[in-house]
Amino acid sequence: MYSELTLLRAEIERDIALITDEDSLEQFKLKYLVKKGAIQGFIERLRDVPKEHKPSVGKEINALRSLAENFYDERKTSYDERRKAHVELIDVSLPGRRCTPLGSIHPIQQTLDRCITIFERMGFSVAEGPDVENDYYNFGALNFAPDHPARDMQDTFFVRSEKADDILLRTHTSSVQIRVMKSQKPPIRSIMPGRVYRNETVSARSLAEFHQLEGLYIDRNVTFAELKGTIISFAKEMYGGNSKFRFRPSYFPFTEPSAEVDISCYLCNGKGCRICKYSGWLEICGCGMVHPNVLKNCDIDPEEFSGYAFGFGIERVTLLRTGIDDIRLLYENDVRLLNQFR
Asked: Would the pTM of this model clear 0.70, i.e. be above it?
């Protein structure tokens, strides 16, 4: 047994030299100091040792146990003190760290908020209406005849309903104009922001679901010159005073006369590029004087009152302001893009 104890001492000393952390220290304890450990095994074998050798063998076993226990206790104390010192370095009075970054307002909403602010300073109020409309508010009251070819200008999402067969997702916020004119008496000066829906192919320039902001002004002796002044004042504040604008004759069933407003291309500075289809201009707005039939449909006398209306897409305005060349990027939730608008 003496030779075995000599080997055990050598093994203990070797394992002591290999201990570098708390995990290896725990393995040392399980190997030598528990009831089924190596040292306890020799204690149980002590009964088989001849009587005359028991004192010397027992003394050697106790020496090995003391060696292992003293080393374990000293190293365990050292690790505990080190851990305690690390904890005490933490100042609990310091404010907590913000692990989760704060979000920001989406660029579409930023543009919408800025547009609303500009028009509110001009004296326009804000009106809202339902996204799900019927044919009357979306088409009929806006001078779209049932077989009018202008209905083909806007591909519509129709909604199945047991109550009516003309329920649809609004294709423009002009439906809110009708609701405002039917609920208020002139003078009316209001803008109508909101989402609209059209069954269109998604591309770099168009979406099936997007945002519009329309405006309406009804009063006595309203002129087209006032419409031009309003649009240009807004556009200069939104796009900068150096931008160039032009009004082109156009057609809309609910306005007469009608026009479309173009701005010089922000990417090529009017020289021509892919985004502006090499024309140097980008359309930003449709507008015109409110058609007399629309006023009649809303019980407003066109002989006494006149007015103008305009509308534009918020996504298109956002592209013009930011220089982004693909409208789809605004809805892909790419953090790298959104972080630029904090």
From this structure: no
